Amino acid sequence: MIALLPSPVADVGCDPPIDSPSPSLTCPGELLQRLRAAESGRLGELSVPPLVLRVAMGSVVHLEGARVSSIHVVRSGAFKCVRMLEDGYEQVVSFAERADVLGFDGLCRGVHQTTAVALEDSTVYGLSVHEVNGLLQTSPELARALHSAVSRALVDAARIADMMAAVASETRLARFLVWCSDRALERGESPRRLHLRMGRRDIASLLGVAHETVSRCFSLLARDGVLQVENRDVEILDRAALVANSRGTRRNSDLAIRHRAAAA
Amino acid sequence: MIALLPSPVADVGCDPPIDSPSPSLTCPGELLQRLRAAESGRLGELSVPPLVLRVAMGSVVHLEGARVSSIHVVRSGAFKCVRMLEDGYEQVVSFAERADVLGFDGLCRGVHQTTAVALEDSTVYGLSVHEVNGLLQTSPELARALHSAVSRALVDAARIADMMAAVASETRLARFLVWCSDRALERGESPRRLHLRMGRRDIASLLGVAHETVSRCFSLLARDGVLQVENRDVEILDRAALVANSRGTRRNSDLAIRHRAAAA
DNA sequence: CGGCAATTTGAGTAGCGTCAATTATGGTGG
DNA sequence: CCACCATAATTGACGCTACTCAAATTGCCG
């Protein structure tokens, strides 16, 4: 399932040439950049080069219920994190792409809470929990970078909640696509031409709807000229219309325009 | 809105006497325990006692969109984290109680992604981001404790996704109550007698249903003898039945009993 | 080329959201 | 202490959306 590379191997293919030299600001993929640098010989504060693992499409990086021995950072490719519900339904909890952290949610109980499945052939950095604890002391910058990445996971969780909270399923899909577009932009890719790595079922699971409904919504948005859909390749033709669709419609009485004067 | 305490003030009331001496294992509220110890004089690795803030019910600890100057750890009381959607709907993203971390999701962009509102009179520890970065180097244990707490937030996010993903709203409420029960148990309280700190609207928002539906589901579960409901005080009369209700019902064809043989 | 899975489309029904009205609760001031 | 108001919570009725079951089509990999 998981092929282990010697480590500082000059690994080829698999990742597009998007190693943009973004300045030493703070956020986007600083953690990944540092790991890449270390991999290329510039070790920085790291004592040893990071471990690189190759993960074939459909195989898993870690399994729900397994003891947490290490966490991972996506180096290339894409993953879905799923939870098996009691009735056997596979609930998709998040999607992870380059620079995202996998397995951090297992730290609090020492057991992985999700299963991370590769949606395509991918590579990840493996960091043992022991390494993590040590690294954070020796390298404040690395610590900040890791915190930033974990923070991003929390933000994504909140946005996913927003998606699932929408009343109309068309709204949910629109929000999902806007989210995908935003992420593509952050990643330096086109925010208009999206290549979805996950199937309709996975999208449906994330959004909390039936996969037929996802399919129907794609068709509707395409018929209205908002999208051009060809299987997993989606082009956003009319972003304004898509955003309009992403704006939810909740009843007036549930709105929060209710300002309570706080006592002084 | 926010009253600032001198700091190592012997603060009274507000928090129940649940300072159980759980051994130095790893998980549940280690971060909080360390902060409490520091507050009581036993500074440990901290150079100064932690800052304690008092937050009145209905007021906020941090506001969505504001720059992140510090994060907070709930010392007593309860909070909801909300996001304002474009249409003015207030989406509840999570509930936080004692030992939970607030504001960590803002680190990656430097701007708070949620608004944290106190559901009752509460107190929190305030940690400036500067402090956080420094502390983690000087104290590995504190770092681990923080990571554990953040990890728990990710786990909660996944469970919330599970709740929202359920088809039937009765199932969603059942899952929510099981979750509340689990948390109460972790906290050392009774898993049967729950005192919900949030209103029906907030529950409805978290579950992605109308608040009338929440009310109806409470009534149904009460009529079936599963619960005894008196406003925000809920007693679980038949946990087995509640768990049975929490088991979702998805169509067979969407189940994930589909094992693809991975190439070797 | 054949088979399996993914996707799409259709039809019927159940369940939930919306609107609306009533009751309960808690806090404030007279 | 009680009356009063605002908000929260409950219950009812109705329409519409999305889930379910079902079948056809496409796409993909061996």
Automatic annotation (TrEMBL), chains A, B:
Keyword Lipid biosynthesis included in the entry's annotation: no
Record bears the keyword Transcription regulation: yes
Keywords annotated in UniProt: DNA-binding, Transcription, Transcription regulation
Domain (HTH crp-type): residue spans on this chain: 167-240
InterPro entries found in the cross-reference section: cNMP-bd_dom, cNMP-bd_dom_sf, Env_Response_Regulators, HTH_CRP, RmlC-like_jellyroll, Tscrpt_reg_HTH_Crp-type_CS, WH-like_DNA-bd_sf, WH_DNA-bd_sf
Annotated PROSITE patterns: CNMP_BINDING_3 (PS50042), HTH_CRP_1 (PS00042), HTH_CRP_2 (PS51063)
SUPFAM superfamilies: cAMP-binding domain-like, Winged helix' DNA-binding domain
Cyclic nucleotide-binding domain mapped to chain residues: 31-153
The protein, known as: Crp/Fnr family transcriptional regulator
